[in-house]
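Quick one - inputs below.
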Amino acid sequence: MTPGKNCHELVDLLIKAKTVEEIHSLCADFCEYSGFDRFLYGARIPTSFVKPYFIFISGYPNEWRTRYTVKGYMAVDPTVSHCATHLTPISWDQVGPQENSDEQIRMFMGEAREFGLNSGVSFPIHSAQGEFAMLNLASTKSHAQAKPTIQEALPYASLFSAYLHEAVRRVFEHQVLSLSRVHLTDREKQCLLWSAEGKTTWETSHILGVSERTVVFHLQNAAGKLKVVKRQQAVARAVSLGLISPQLE
Amino acid sequence: MTPGKNCHELVDLLIKAKTVEEIHSLCADFCEYSGFDRFLYGARIPTSFVKPYFIFISGYPNEWRTRYTVKGYMAVDPTVSHCATHLTPISWDQVGPQENSDEQIRMFMGEAREFGLNSGVSFPIHSAQGEFAMLNLASTKSHAQAKPTIQEALPYASLFSAYLHEAVRRVFEHQVLSLSRVHLTDREKQCLLWSAEGKTTWETSHILGVSERTVVFHLQNAAGKLKVVKRQQAVARAVSLGLISPQLE
DNA sequence: CCTCACCCTGTAAGATTTTACAGCTACCTG
DNA sequence: CAGGTAGCTGTAAAATCTTACAGGGTGAGG
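Output:
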C-alpha cells in the first residue's frame, strides 16, 4: 500500500539480482507492496523476426497462462497491442468494457476475470536492443475499487519496470541475448549503415574511399558475426538489435 | 518539491496538449514542482539512418545549447551514451566525476557546470517506432545537495517522460513523423518480414504460395510507400519504424 | 617474435534483384 | 457504375549481390 517506501529498495535489489528466482521474488514483493495480487512480466527477444524468443516471469495462475498460450490470446489481448505501440501504461478498464470493443476482446477479458484478473494495469517496455516487454499488475478487485491503487502505483511501477527489464537482460545475457552483444568493427557498422540507407556496394565503396571488394568483405564479416548469410538479413538484424544508429551531425 | 501531487495533473494535461508551447510549459511546471531548475527534452527521429531529424524542447541556457551543438558534444556526453543503450535513468554524479572517466568527459561536465547545470538526471525514452529521446532535469545545486530531489523525482519523471514523448509524437505527427504512419498491407508486411529473414524472392513466393513476380510486386509497393528504392532499404526502414515485428507463432 | 584483430584488395562465375514493359480479378464505396 | 484499394501474374535485359578462389598490410600485446 505504500509503494514509495519500498520502490527504491526493490530497485537496488534488482540491480544486484543474479537469478530469475531473485527477480521473481522482487516482482512479487513489488506487487504486494503496491497493493496488487498478481504480476506477469513477459519479454519478446528478437532472436528472429518470424520466430522470436519469449521470456516470462509469472505470478499468474498457470491455468490461465496455458489457456492464453493455447488459444493464441496474444493476438487478441488489447493490452498487448497497446503496449506494442505505446510507451504509456494502460489500465485495463480503458480497453475491456468499452462499448466499441469487439466481441472477441470482451470474451477475452471475461475469461481473465474467471482467474481473478479483474482489474489491472500494463506497462510497456521498449529497449534500445529491440526487445519488447510488458509488466502486468493485476488485482482481484473491481476496476472501480482498484483505481486508487493503480493511480498511486503508476510512477513507481514505471520506474520499476525499467530496472526490471535491465535485470532480466543481465540474467539472460549469456543465453538468448548473446546476439545483442555482438561486436561489430567501425568499418562493418559503416558498411551496414550505408547499405541500410540503400547504397550499392559501388556507392558505399566511394563514400568510404575503399574498393568494392573491401565493402563486400566487411559486409560478409558483419553477416558472419550476426550469424546470417544475406546482406539484407544482416542489415535487418543490425537495425533490430540497435547496432547501427545515427548520432552526430 | 511535491512531485506526486502534480504528476497526475500534468500527465492529464500532456495528453491533451496540442502545441509545442503547451508541452514546453508543462515540462517547465514539472521541472519546478520536482525541485529542478532546468530541463531539456531531445528526440532523435529515424527519418534516415545517416541523417536523422532532431526535436528539442529546451529549458536550457541557449548559449550552452549552441556550444553543445557546435562542439559536437552529443558524441561526448556520457548521459547520451548511457540513455542510448539503457532504459534506466542516470544521475549525473554517476558519470562525470568518476575517477575512470576520461579527460574529455570531465571537461565536458565542467563546462556544463559553468552554465548552472551542476547536477541532474537523464531519462531514456525508446519508442516502438524507433525514436530515441531523453528527458534531462538539471539543478544548480551540488550533487550532494540535489540527491534527495533526484531520488524523489525518479518515479514521477519516469512516468512523465513516457507521456511527454507521446505528446511530442502527437504534435509532430504531421511533420517529421509521417513515415511511421505509413500503412502497409498484410502481404507487403509478410514479404518484408521474410525478406528481413533472409529469404530470396523465390523462397518467399513458395512460403506465401504466390508467384515470384507477386512477391517482387509487393516489395516494390512497400518500398514506394516507405519512399525508398531498394529492397534492403525498405527492410531496414520497416524494421526501424517497427512496422514489421513478430507476435504470434 | 608470434598471434590476433582489424583493415584492405583482386578475379570470376552464378544467383538474385531491379526495372520496364503489360494485363488480370475481386471487393467495397460513393 | 465509376473509382479506389488490394491482390495477383508474365517476360526480359541490366544491375547488383553472393560465393569461392587467393593475397596483402598495420598495430597492440603476450
